[in-house]
Amino acid sequence: MTWTDRLAPSLDDFAAMAKAAFDGLPEAFRRLTGDVVFRVDDFATDEVLDSLGIEDPFELTGLYQGVDLSRRSVLDVGAQPSMVFLYRRPILDEWCERGDVALGALIEHVLVHEIGHHFGLSDDDIHRIEDEA
């Protein structure tokens, strides 16, 4: 295969890959995810990076933003929808650096990781589950 005529996947391409990854997850898992909005951007905003204490925007491949299921209440009024952000450029950078994983699989990994936060799991919880799988 020659790469001289290949372009990097666009934001729309990434969104399509994320949708395909989500659609491929078990139905019960998808159902529990509920009303989460998925969004693909090139990078996190400066405000997000600053709030997380991250200087290099390539260090953040995804983000869950919202109230996780373990902290929700029926008394919550007017809450913003929960969102999962996937950051195209950092994911592409990690994919190129690793060289041992398909891009679709890496997108799925980041997507599932961020959905884990929606379920109330910490990074340590998610890493432990991944290690045990």
Identify the CATH class. Answer: Alpha Beta
Amount of beta strand: 5-15%
Element order, helices and strands?
HHEHEEHHH
Spans of at least 5 consecutive residues with low confidence:
none
Strand arrangement in the largest pleated sheet: 1-3-2
Q: Structural class, judged by helices and strands? A: mainly alpha
Radius of gyration: 16 Å
The total of helices stands at 6
Specify the biggest β-sheet. Answer: 3 strands, mixed
Overall mean pLDDT: 89
Helix amount: 40-55%
Which fold name corresponds to the CATH topology?
Answer: Zincin-like
Tell me the distance between the termini. 33 Å
Principal-axis shape equals globular
The total domain count is 1
> Total number of β-strand segments?
3
At CATH level 2, the architecture is 2-Layer Sandwich
Secondary structure elements and pairings:
Blueprint: H1 11-23, H2 27-33, E1 37-41, H3 46-52, E2 62-65, E3 83-87, H4 88-98, H5 103-118, H6 123-132
Parallel strand pairs: 1-3
Antiparallel strand pairs: 2-3
Helix pairs in contact: 1-5
Pfam families: Zincin_1
Protein name: Neutral zinc metallopeptidase
